[in-house]
């Protein structure tokens, strides 16, 4: 059971030290879009429940960045693009194994829009990802080949931002890979699990949490 967020707005890690957002910190809001919320094409269970928590957390940050899944119709990660394949099966792609998804977050559709309840007046950048037809993109920093950058790292460094707080959808995919890449690029990384929700394919939430810890991300319940 997830408890209500405490006050004041401080994060307590498992090691007991406190973290309060400062001028070199940024809130990274990952894929809080209609298709990932209840009623959407690829709904994350309870996905819309993160919205009020993200709005609350964002009040403590001077900088906020959003990511947005932005697929063309017929994207190669859609099961419908592979005759005979079912959603959530996998296929070998030139860049590695790819999970096949229901069609979702198609450019220009309502499903691709941000959840209407998000209120982030300090958002300074939207990173659109997954718009290349032949490659998917989970991470806020790279396409799934692990090499093609989104430009987010350069933006953060240019702005003097060195610590990233990750929230959003889904814990076991886009949050996980964003946190792992943030650490690989040398950014301090905090994942606020209370403001994330996961899909959980065959234990993928537990695997994702383990991978983020192994990468050196700090995982907290709330800030």
Question: In short, what is this structure?
Answer:
This protein is α/β, with parallel strands linked by helices and 223 residues long.
Order of helices and strands: EEEHEEEEHEHEHE
- Strand tally, please? 10
Task: Give the proportion of residues in helices.
Answer: 10-25%
Quaternary class: single chain
Strand order of the largest sheet: 7-4-3-8-9-10
Radius of gyration: 16 Å
Helix/strand/pairing category: alpha/beta
Average of per-residue pLDDT values? 92
Considering the chains and any ligands shown, give keywords for the structure.
223 residues; alpha/beta; 6-stranded parallel β-sheet; two-stranded antiparallel sheet; 10 strands; globular; disordered N terminus
Please describe what this structure looks like.
This is nicotinamidase. Residues 26-222 form the Isochorismatase-like domain. Keywords: Hydrolase, Metal-binding, Pyridine nucleotide biosynthesis. Helix content is 19%, strand content 23%. It is of the alpha/beta class and 223 residues long. The strands form 3 sheets. A 6-stranded parallel beta sheet has the order 7-4-3-8-9-10. A hairpin with a 2-residue loop joins strand 5 and strand 6 (96-99).
What order do the helices and strands come in, and which of them pair?
Elements: E1 11-12, E2 18-19, E3 25-30, H1 50-58, E4 64-69, E5 90-93, E6 96-99, E7 123-129, H2 152-158, E8 163-169, H3 171-184, E9 188-197, H4 204-215, E10 218-220
Parallel strand pairs: 3-4, 3-8, 4-7, 8-9, 9-10
Antiparallel strand pairs: 1-2, 5-6
Helix pairs in contact: 3-4
Domain Isochorismatase-like: 26-222
GO molecular function, one term: nicotinamidase activity
Keywords: Hydrolase, Metal-binding, Pyridine nucleotide biosynthesis
């Amino acid at each position: 059971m997830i408890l209500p967020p405490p006050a004041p707005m401080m994060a307590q890690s498992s090691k007991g030290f406190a973290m309060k957002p400062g001028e070199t910190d940024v809130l990274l809001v990952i894929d809080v879009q209609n298709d990932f919320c209840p009623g959407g094409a690829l709904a994350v269970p309870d996905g819309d429940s993160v919205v009020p928590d993200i709005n609350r957390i964002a009040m403590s940050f001077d900088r906020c960045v959003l990511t947005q899944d932005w697929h063309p119709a017929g994207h190669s990660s859609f099961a419908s693009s592979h005759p005979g394949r079912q959603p959530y099966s996998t296929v070998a792609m030139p860049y590695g194994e790819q999970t096949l998804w229901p069609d979702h977050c198609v450019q220009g559709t309502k499903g691709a829009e941000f959840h209407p309840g998000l209120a982030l007046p300090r958002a300074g950048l939207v990173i659109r990802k997954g718009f290349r037809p032949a490659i998917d993109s989970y991470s806020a920093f790279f396409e799934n080949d692990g090499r093609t950058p989104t430009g987010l790292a350069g933006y953060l460094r240019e702005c003097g931002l060195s610590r990233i707080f990750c929230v959003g959808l889904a814990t076991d995919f886009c949050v996980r890979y964003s946190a792992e890449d943030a650490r690989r690029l040398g950014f301090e990384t905090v994942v606020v699990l209370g403001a994330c929700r996961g899909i959980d394919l065959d234990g993928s939430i537990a695997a994702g949490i383990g991978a983020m810890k192994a990468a050196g991300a700090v995982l907290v319940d709330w800030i």
